[in-house]
Amino acid sequence: MNKRIGVFICHCGLNIAGTVDVDALREAVGKIRNVVYVKNYIFLCSQPGQEMVSDAVKEHKLDGFIVANCSPTLHEKTFRTIAIKLGMNPYLVEVANIREQSSWPHSKQPDYATKKALKIIKGTIKKLERNIELYTQRVGLTKRALVIGGGIAGIQAALDIADGGYEVLLLDRKQSIGGHMAQISETFPTLDCPQCIMTPKMTEVAQHPNIKLYTYSEVEEISGFIGNFTVKLRQKARYVDWDKCTGCGECIAKCPSKPLSEFNRNLCKGTAIYRDFEQAVPSYPVINKEACLYFQKGVCRVCEKVCPAAAINYEDKDIIKEEKIGAIIIATGYDLMPIQALGEYGAGKYKDVVDGMQFERLLASTGPYAGNVKRPSDQKVPESVVFIQCAGSRDPETHYPYCSKICCMYTAKQALLYKHNVHHGKAYIFYIDIRSNGKGYEEFVQRVQEEEGVVYIRGKVSKVFKRGDKLVVWGADTLTGQTVEIETDLVVLASAMIPSTGSLNLASKTRLATDKFGWFSEAHPKLRPVESVTGGYFLAGTAQAPRDIPETVAQASGAASKVLALFSNEYIESDPVIAQVDPEICNRCGYCESVCAYGAVKLNPKTRIAEVNEVLCEGCGACAATCPSGAISHRNNSRKQIFDMISVATENYDQITTKFDK
Amino acid sequence: MKIEIKNEEVRSEIIQRIEEISGENIYKCYQCGKCSAGCPSADEMDLLPNQVIRNLQIGKVDAVLNSRSIWVCATCYMCWIRCPRGVNLTSLFEACRLMTLRQNLDQVGLKEAIKESEEMDIPQIAIISLLRKLTS
Ligand SMILES: Cc1cc2nc3c(=O)[nH]c(=O)nc-3n(C[C@H](O)[C@H](O)[C@H](O)COP(=O)(O)OP(=O)(O)OC[C@H]3O[C@@H](n4cnc5c(N)ncnc54)[C@H](O)[C@@H]3O)c2cc1C
Ligand code: SF4
Ligand code: SF4
Ligand code: SF4
Ligand code: SF4
Known about the structure:
The structure holds two protein chains of two kinds. By secondary structure, chain A is α/β, with parallel strands linked by helices. Chain A has four domains: 130 residues, Rossmann fold, CATH 3.40.50; 219 residues, FAD/NAD(P)-binding domain, CATH 3.50.50.60; 165 residues, FAD/NAD(P)-binding domain (3-Layer(bba) Sandwich); 61 residues, Alpha-Beta Plaits (2-Layer Sandwich), CATH 3.30.70. Helices cover 28% and strands 24% of the residues of chain A. In chain A, the strands form eleven sheets. A five-stranded parallel sheet of chain A has the order 8-7-6-14-27, with helices on one face. Chain A has a five-stranded parallel sheet with strand order 16-23-17-18-19. Chain A has a four-stranded parallel sheet with strand order 2-1-3-4, sandwiched between helices. In chain A, a hairpin with a 6-residue loop joins strand 30 and strand 31. In chain A, helix 7 crosses helix 9, helix 7 runs parallel beside helix 17 and helix 13 runs parallel beside helix 14. By secondary structure, chain B is mostly helical. Helices cover 54% and strands 0% of the residues of chain B. Chain B is built from nine helices and no strands. The longest helix of chain B is centred in the C-terminal third of the chain and has 13 residues. Chain B folds into two domains: 93 residues, Fumarate Reductase Iron-sulfur Protein, Chain B, domain 2, CATH 1.10.1060.10; 29 residues, no CATH class. Bound molecules: flavin-adenine dinucleotide (FAD) and iron/sulfur cluster (4 copies). One iron/sulfur cluster (SF4) binds next to helix 2 and helix 3 of chain B. One iron/sulfur cluster binds next to helix 2 and helix 3 of chain B.
């Protein structure tokens, strides 16, 4: 039992003191049993604040202390480190969060906030009284990373880690790495083509001695924890033996089956045996079983006949591989919302209403019309194009509330490229706001408006319908206060970015948190943007939120540097605040085993008594709450401690007088 | 043309009343104009639907209550269906009409309306809804 407790109350500038009556609070805390010292300070986390805490612990011979300030996710570590320096066990330091849990939410009720702050502190004192000293455990780590997703984010992260000297597995479910960037015609604001700036990186990946490529593969299962993951990968049946294949492409040239090309976003046909695009890495093809005549009808085998390397293997099977991994980067990217959902724009109904990525393919020299912009319906050169921004974005009512962040810029780029392609053509952009906040971005938009003569119309489109072979666009020009109608040949929707299909499935396999749309959640929106909440997982690129290539690459390098920092350690320290079984009390029911999401508690097969794997246990407390005999407790959150805190929480509010009391 | 934004007009009592009756928050609107773009009555309006909201946002309630727009609104709900922010403009228009109607200021006379309906062979149900909408 800790009997010489100190309490340090932080004003956090006015964040706490602006609402909570900190003087009344100090006085009330001073009267609580076992509290021998109370001190208020304007910023406890400041250097002088920390020194003050340190000095007071020594001077008053405190055997534990509480800092009443912000969330423990922010400064628990700061103050526990002070304890370590003083030779005190860090688990005898607790945070009473009176900012996020009191002053902020109750900023309009200062009296209530003050009284609640007292309860929070008092409850924490009760808990601290029964805290015991805990010690971390050390476990080794595998210095080998897995990057899931081989878009530009995954490519950059893999290269950085590999250059740092560690082995990386780069995984992509597609035949080739490259992701969406490979589909883009030219990139804003500098207008370099991805072939020029990305293929060198892709080649580097292919040649790097530290990178092992797993394309056409997916994650089957992940178990373990930071530094010690075991990952099962499913390498899908390719029906081509990549060890024999030379990538000559004879089979692709001769394949008679012509399904729609996914890479060209269904604007033209590809082949059943295919590689994603000409510069694909690896360059070896795979067979799309659903489209292959041999698999579907039992006749053909043309590829087998023409292949000079005898690489075709119709008997190929999925292969499951197991790999030991120390850190995982999620770089699974994005997709565009299906435009069929935008019925008012005739999307899905009219061929000449396309999404942004389809228009990239129409512009691309590697696209269906070799870079000459034509309408999908009749291959006519469009005399005019109407672009509709925020299609499905910034639309909390029917689609997605967020801004997709990149479409203002790519729409400006696409309008410019269209004008370069069809000199006499007219381009109209319907927008609500123009978001061009990147280096050189505003200048780019200005150039599109001034020099390229693209007409920006401020207003949203309400309806697109067909008249003859034209599309009619009904919109508003809110600047003149008039409704407008434009007859045009082609409509391009800057449709909302969404997390890549399968993100939620991957999230459940990895037990990673996502927001409600499926974007992977970062540990802290400002200060830990490339780490996930779960140890050992890092985030790169658009898997986390919409962003453009420069930001994606920067974040990928950030994630890679976190992995490198992790790999610079020889061991990992595991948190001791976890579950603990009292074997004398355990009645062998096994309820704990069934509730543990991490597979960390199991009945010993011989004794049938529950045992906790200290490294796997995340300390969630589910087992402790479930155990009917009370055999499992959560270290430093024992039943007694929890009940003590509940009795404080349910006390009356009338034991503190504040300056707000009349 | 310059208009003065006045503290006493912005979020005035009457505007708050309009919000209360309609159950809408006028500041949800980000002025995209999609409502106006799809409104079948927009051609007959002196203020486009998005301009009606804009005027309310900056406190110019008189401009709205004196406009033709609120009476021309066909109550078809197209603006609400399409609005990305889910602003029920139709309800707002109705609330604006009530501001006038609750002062017993009819917008059509009962007699003329009935006479006109007989001459033009308008179904009774249309007359009833017209009267509901335009008379106190
Ligand atoms: C129309 C359009 C035009 C654009 N133009 C520009 C531009 O000009 N300039 C610019 O800076 N940005 C532009 N962008 C944005 C740019 O595309 C992105 O910023 C960038 O491609 C993001 O890269 P990424 O690696 O995060 O994601 P992606 O490119 O989506 O890569 C993700 C990869 O992960 C793989 N994957 C996904 N899920 C799994 C899984 N479960 N298992 C295994 N693999 C998986 C995918 O196959 C893919 O290869 C544009 C975007 C659009 C839509
Ligand atoms: S066997 Fe299948 S993949 Fe091979 S050429 Fe025929 S259709 Fe194409
Ligand atoms: S980036 Fe521009 S077009 Fe895209 S959602 Fe945001 S504001 Fe709309
Ligand atoms: S505390 Fe949570 S993670 Fe640990 S053993 Fe119990 S249920 Fe599993
Ligand atoms: S559609 Fe909605 S958000 Fe857009 S201007 Fe009209 S009311 Fe405002």
